[in-house]
Design brief:
- By secondary structure, the chain is α/β, with parallel strands linked by helices.
- It is built from seven helices and eleven strands.
- The strands form four sheets. The chain has a four-stranded mixed β-sheet with strand order 3-4-5-6, with no helix packed on it. Strands 9-10-11 form a three-stranded parallel β-sheet. A two-stranded parallel ribbon has the order 1-2.
Length: 299
């Protein structure tokens, strides 16, 4: 297997840091590993691949234009492999990673790549997207939730498949809203269980990922007492075979006003009685209940 990687260091061309970094990269001695430190057009199985390393202060189009203008680049057949933002500045999805090396929709229309594979955005994209991001293969921190993967591009069929990785932590956060009904501990236990099980059903590996699941729990809402809430949340996570890395209840308000509790209970019952012709009826009712409780308790 031959491997080519782009040296995407988020450094400006000519910087001493860049020069030192390239020297370090140059020490790789594995015969099947090639580090691409400048734009390069390669042919693999009769298909063109244009590798463009990150370049601070530039755009991808500046490096696509030369081979396109010379006629080397085959429109509609080449695969662009680079590292940067598509369609805008996407700091929120880039894992707090600095830098901006844009590719625009006009670039796609102008140069017509058959496929675009980009690094930089740490959130995996759908494999049907016009620009594909494999996402980070390993979470940099706990904010990078969900399973990690790499993308496999078949140079013969020009198709892309996801290979989900079976190592490393899989982070997930559970945000609970507790209503004051005298059974708050049972609520917490139920909501944690339902949230994690729902997440497992939506993940590529399903329940197999549970031992690697690292869960953060946040409790908010209203209760007569915080006692035992954090412990119950942690235990509910552990009971499912996952690991609770944190649990906090800073936004969980305590109230012992019986009059407000009576009003809140009646409002909750009325909301539950309403029949809605709505696809996500349960989620809508939860949202309405949250707002109702905030009004009742004036938070």
């Amino acid at each position: 297997m031959k491997i080519a990687v782009t040296a995407d260091l988020h450094l400006k061309s000519g910087d001493q840091q860049q020069e030192e970094a390239f020297k370090l990269i140059g020490r790789f001695t594995v015969e099947n590993l090639k580090v691409v430190s400048e734009p390069e057009l390669r042919v693999l199985n009769d298909r063109q691949f244009l590798f463009i390393p990150y370049e601070e202060g530039k755009t991808m189009a500046e490096f696509i234009e030369p081979p396109a203008a010379s006629g080397e680049l085959e429109k509609g057949r080449f695969v662009l492999v680079s590292h940067g933002d598509f369609g805008g500045y996407r700091r929120k999805e880039s894992g707090k990673e600095a830098g901006y090396f844009p590719l625009t929709r006009n670039d796609l229309l102008e140069y017509e790549p058959a496929s675009v594979l980009l690094g930089h955005i740490h959130v995996p994209s759908a494999t049907i997207s016009e620009v594909l991001y494999p996402g980070s293969p390993y979470p940099i921190d706990e904010s990078e939730e969900g399973e990690r993967r790499i993308l496999l591009y078949d140079t013969v069929t020009a198709t892309v498949d996801s290979l989900w990785l079976d190592y490393g932590p899989v982070y997930y956060s559970v945000d609970l809203f507790v209503v004051l009904d005298g059974n708050e501990l049972a609520q917490v236990q139920k909501q944690v269980r339902e949230s994690i099980n729902s997440h497992l059903r939506s993940t590529p590996s399903g329940e197999a990922v549970c031992p690697r699941l690292r869960v953060r729990v946040s409790l908010r809402g209203f209760t007569t007492s915080r006692e035992g809430m954090i412990e119950t949340a942690k235990q509910a996570v552990e009971d499912l075979g996952a690991v609770c890395i944190s649990a906090e209840a800073r936004k969980l308000e305590v109230s012992d006003d019986e009059n407000l509790s009576t009003i809140a209970s009646k409002v909750r019952d009325k909301i539950e009685e309403i029949a809605l012709d709505y696809l996500e009826e349960d989620e809508l009712k939860k949202l309405v209940l949250q707002h109702a409780y905030e009004i009742i308790y004036r938070r």
